[in-house]
Design a protein that fits this description.
Elements (H helix, E strand, L loop, with lengths): L1 E3 L5 E3 L7 E11 L1 H8 L3 H6 L11 E9 L11 E5 L12 E5 L3 E3 L6 H5 L2 H14 L7 E5 L6 H10 L3 E6 L4 H6 L4 E4 L11 E6 L6 H6 L1 E9 L12 H10 L6 E4 L6 H12 L7 E6 L3 H7 L8 E5 L3 H12 L1
Parallel strand pairs: 8-9, 8-11, 9-10, 11-12, 12-13, 14-15
Antiparallel strand pairs: 1-2, 3-4, 3-6, 3-15, 4-5, 5-7
Helix pairs in contact: 4-5
Protein name: NAD(P)-dependent alcohol dehydrogenase
InterPro entries: ADH-like_N, Chloroplast_QOR, ER, GroES-like_sf, NAD(P)-bd_dom_sf, Quin_OxRdtase/zeta-crystal_CS
């Protein structure tokens, strides 16, 4: 049986190396980082991560364990898992089978289905690192999430609320109801009102607001934090990196904390997210579902603020494909 990537190529099922697991993928998440990689923007991304023709992309996965490598004792074939595939090394999740490090997988939360579990790892981990670890949000803090209706933003709203913060979510009008349903105390339509004027804030989590750093600093308390998660200003040669680099230069000379987020998926972060999910304090919102054969369409629709929450790729399993073929023959 072959492995099929988003482009429709047939490949052999991968074999797990030491400490690795091969997962039969049932659903895969995609995010703005995948769009940046495919488009080679901003320019440093193209230099750091050049695409190879044989690479299978995608990091977020949910599915069942197919086989385990040497020294893997935590998992056995048939276990339901979610986590991070080795997308940057070429064995990604946009396929029927994907390789993953054993420690980058976790048992699928009982409160989520496979599609919901598949969209958690990358975006929710970024939100957790931004809100808890970079901004140091605590009970009673006033937090502004710019891009609150997006993939990372909608998780950031929920994590800030779970930490006891008063949360203001800024989003476009079509996403306001969703952001409010996630627990935001105040929802601001940024097309009609500047959310910075409602400050001061103890923390601003910017997932794509494109606002100048100096404007956000004016909306902070004396020791507040700005965490730059992502931004995609059209036409900027460095994309959102220019603001992040400036923040790194200014940070040593101010009482504010100006943080360029550097997020990576680890076992502890996944465990912390799973605990929030099981406690009913965190849930993904899925905006769109596409089958694996239409992944290129899904990527084209993703990014630049168009989607609400997350996009998931569903992967038809062999039994499902056979049943569909029998149905068509009738």
């Amino acid at each position: 049986m072959g492995q099929v990537d988003g482009g429709g190529d047939e490949r052999d099922i991968p074999s797990p190396g030491p400490g690795e697991v091969v997962v039969e993928v049932h659903a895969a998440g995609i995010d703005a980082g995948l769009v940046h990689l495919l488009e080679g923007r901003p320019f440093p991304v193209k230099l750091a991560l050049p695409l190879r023709g044989d690479r299978v992309l995608g990091i977020d996965i949910a599915g069942t364990v197919h086989s385990v490598g040497e020294s893997v004792t935590a998992w056995a074939p048939g276990d339901a898992v979610f986590g991070a595939a080795q997308g940057l090394s070429g064995h990604g999740g946009l396929a029927e089978f994907a390789r993953a490090r054993s420690e980058h997988l976790l048992a699928q939360p009982s409160t989520l289905d496979q599609e919901e579990a598949a969209v958690v790892p990358v975006s929710a981990t970024a939100a957790l690192h931004a809100v808890r670890d970079a901004a140091h949000v605590a009970a009673g803090h006033r937090v502004l999430v710019l891009g609150a209706g997006g993939g990372v933003g909608h998780f950031a709203v929920q994590i800030a609320k779970a930490l006891g913060a008063h949360v203001t979510g800024a989003c476009s009008p079509g996403k306001a109801a969703m952001v409010e349903s996630l627990g935001a105390d105040v929802v601001i339509d940024y097309t009609t009102q500047d959310p910075l004027e409602a400050g001061p804030y103890d923390a601003i989590i910017d997932t794509g607001g494109h606002r100048p750093l100096r404007h956000m600093r004016r909306a902070l308390t004396r020791t507040g934090a700005v965490v730059l998660v992502g931004s995609e200003p059209e036409g900027a040669p460095l994309g959102g990196l220019s603001r992040s680099l400036w923040a790194a230069l200014v940070n040593p000379f101010t009482r504010h904390r100006l943080v360029m987020l550097n997020s990576s998926i680890g076992s502890q972060a996944l465990q912390d997210l799973a605990e929030l999910i099981e406690a009913g304090m965190l849930r993904p919102v899925i905006h769109a579902r596409y089958p694996l054969e239409h992944v290129s369409t899904a990527v084209q629709q993703l990014g630049r603020g168009r989607g609400t929450g997350k996009t998931v790729i569903t992967v038809a399993q062999p039994a499902e494909e056979a049943a569909w073929a029998r149905f068509q023959r009738r």
